[in-house]
């Protein structure tokens, strides 16, 4: 890790900052969106009112002593309880907000609302939009093209799928979802492929981000790796509970697999192959508890470290995973990517559209060109993307 003292941790207290807008605007709007999507009872309405008040004007309350993960959150940040949401690390505040939202709607029960994903209506609707149908048709066309052309097209499909982030759309003004694909601000596609030459046993660990229109191309990419012999095993890591609005859970993987198998054509073949790959153990789903932790991956527990160490490459999807991978700090943008990922126990690649202030691994010319072309900002608009690779401790 480079010296972090030059790179302040991102809090949400700076007026006009992106982080502040997420806490002050996105979170209250999300509470109301969830409230309107279900016929919740008075108890849940009261709990949502309390959360709305606390996260805008109040202080952070601990979980009830009876919560299954009460002790875990004490360990992950007891020092933040009793403080304003705006004064604690942005990463921690966001993560805890999602945990508290689930608490408010009774997700952890006991009771009739136990296990009801408050974001499911939005995720489900997105899977059946005309945009999703168009993207599946585009994937179908890629799957019918010569194999050598498929690889890069599918990596880029998975990368740009990261624009499909329902939380992001709650507050963005630019329609990043429809933005034309801009050139990548860093493009290590070839370095990624060099880690998966094919012909030798390889395990790919894909740490998923959003469900729906991001997870569909992720699944098609995993099928490509397995079917064309770039990997003989894949692990798809999802969140253990609903998170950051549209982050994928196991239930979302199943919805996406069904969506693929019902799409017809070459895409349906992908769905059937993945279904049977799961039966044979070539594709497994992982939902390690640390994937919902409010902490950077540098703090990962030994069990997850061992899992990543055994992978030929870990692919981190999306903005939040990027923040957790390199640290949620205001690094100078020219800080080398590998300087921030040196702790990672194996090769790791980031596929991310830019939706927060964190960025590393750019050269000075790129930063200057971006600043000139986008004086209004380019880090948080979701219109730019990157692929960065750390080849791991053995090749670094
Ligand atoms: O991880 P994802 O889905 O790509 O993005 C998550 C995100 O929408 O949430 C955060 C703000 O809420 C930002 O880091 C980012 O814009």
From TrEMBL:
Catalytic activity: beta-D-fructose 1-phosphate + H2O = D-fructose + phosphate; beta-D-fructose 6-phosphate = dihydroxyacetone + D-glyceraldehyde 3-phosphate
Annotated InterPro entries: ARMT-1-like_metal-bd_sf (IPR036075), ARMT1 (IPR039763), ARMT1-like_metal-bd (IPR002791)
UniProt domain Damage-control phosphatase ARMT1-like metal-binding: residue ranges: 23-366
Pfam family, one: ARMT1-like_dom
UniProt keyword Transmembrane helix present: no
UniProt entry keywords in alphabetical sequence: Hydrolase, Manganese, Metal-binding
Cofactor: Mn(2+)
Family label: Belongs to the damage-control phosphatase family. Sugar phosphate phosphatase III subfamily.
Protein name: Protein-glutamate O-methyltransferase family protein
